[in-house]
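Hi all, posting the design record for the shared folder.

TITLE: backbone redesign
STEP: 1 of 1
STRUCTURE INPUT:
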């Protein structure tokens, strides 16, 4: 069983920055692809960034590309989401999720049900 704990959310003005962290328990963290999802009130959960297990590949949704950066430190079992130039529309609960390796499948999935472990979420609020 893997536990994921997010931190770093909060209230920030538009144009500001936040860095989210997601700490994972267990020794297999380095083998997981990690995703950051967000869900705003009344909207579906969406994948905004992801990183492959070996930090070879990253993914960003069009809405955050150029503003957000995903990274990971496998020695610390932690994945990060650096969020710059924040906009009010970035307001949401942000979740990190871990996807175990799946034979024959790409490391990347935007489908929440294809992730095996989830954090509890951290609120990000961007004021205008």
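Okay, here is what came back for every position:
SEQUENCE:
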């Amino acid at each position: 069983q893997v536990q994921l704990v997010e931190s770093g959310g909060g209230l920030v003005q538009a144009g500001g920055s936040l860095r989210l962290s997601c700490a994972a328990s267990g020794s297999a963290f380095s083998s997981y692809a990690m995703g950051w999802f967000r869900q705003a009130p009344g909207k579906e959960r969406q994948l905004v960034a992801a990183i492959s297990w070996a930090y070879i590949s990253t993914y960003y949704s069009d809405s955050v590309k150029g503003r957000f950066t995903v990274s990971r430190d496998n020695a610390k079992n932690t994945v990060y989401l650096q969020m710059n130039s924040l906009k009010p529309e970035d307001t949401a609960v942000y979740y990190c999720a871990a996807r175990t390796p799946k034979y024959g499948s790409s490391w990347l999935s935007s489908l929440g049900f294809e992730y095996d472990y989830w954090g509890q979420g951290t609120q990000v609020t961007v004021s205008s």
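COMMENT: The first strand starts at residue 4 and ends at 7.
Let me know if anyone wants the other runs.
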